[in-house]
């Protein structure tokens, strides 16, 4: 676990994903291969439920819900059960992340239905870039402009954007895209497996400038895999 996710534990009552991001294969999907003798659906990263884990929520300050998959592929009835189970950790902060923010609408609706403390739940999405062109070569998830628009419109007070792995972008457009979402924090990281997967990456100067602008706009920025991390103004 990197510093960026310090104090965060993953809770996986649902696992797997069909968005097929190229950078997932050497990371999450490779980790899933360790489950060969326990669960072939985990091994193959097929979206599926682990109902036995529903009440086994880690005792952590922050809990990443279904971090080894995407709840866009989870049935609404089961999302209901996952949301209902969070009452077992009333003092924890829950991170709900999807590359399809429309799926997070169900989560927000259910959290309100159960009268959950809104400040304990944060919605997250990944935006690796602002560029839609050729994005289909990277992932089957909704393209960045659609994803950012849906996330901006998500009716929830607490949001975080993860720019990880960062891909080349257009500075002003990407900055505006993120600021329009009004996230309380942005997490930025370069490709952690450059030997296994090649991505079109921005120069360090360009990424540095984006991070500086985000901070100047009052957004908390957390980083990992940045060789010049110590140079970023606090
Ligand atoms: S959306 Fe997440 S879990 Fe799904 S393939 Fe991409 S990186 Fe993997």
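Sequence proposed for the structure above (234 residues):
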């Amino acid at each position: 676990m990197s510093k960026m996710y310090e104090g965060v534990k993953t809770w996986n009552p649902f696992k797997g994903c069909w968005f097929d991001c190229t950078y997932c294969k050497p990371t999450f999907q490779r980790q899933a291969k360790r489950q060969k003798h326990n669960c072939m659906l985990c091994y193959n990263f097929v979206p599926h439920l682990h109902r036995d884990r529903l009440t086994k929520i880690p005792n952590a300050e922050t809990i990443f819900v279904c971090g080894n998959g995407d709840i866009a592929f989870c049935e609404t009835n089961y999302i209901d059960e996952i949301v209902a189970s969070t009452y077992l950790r009333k003092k924890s902060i829950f991170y709900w992340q999807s590359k399809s923010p429309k799926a997070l609408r169900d989560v927000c609706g259910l959290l309100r239905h159960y009268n959950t403390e809104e400040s304990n739940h944060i919605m997250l999405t990944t935006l690796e870039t602002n560029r839609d062109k050729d994005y289909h070569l990277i992932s089957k998830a909704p393209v960045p402009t659609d994803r950012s628009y849906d996330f901006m419109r998500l009716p929830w007070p607490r949001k975080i954007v993860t720019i990880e792995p960062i891909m080349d972008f257009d500075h002003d457009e990407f900055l505006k895209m993120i600021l329009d979402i009004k996230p309380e924090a942005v997490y930025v990281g370069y490709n952690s497996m450059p030997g296994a997967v090649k991505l079109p990456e921005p120069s360090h100067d360009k990424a540095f400038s984006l991070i500086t602008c985000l901070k100047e706009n009052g957004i908390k920025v957390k980083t990992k895999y940045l060789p010049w991390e110590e140079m970023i103004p606090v």
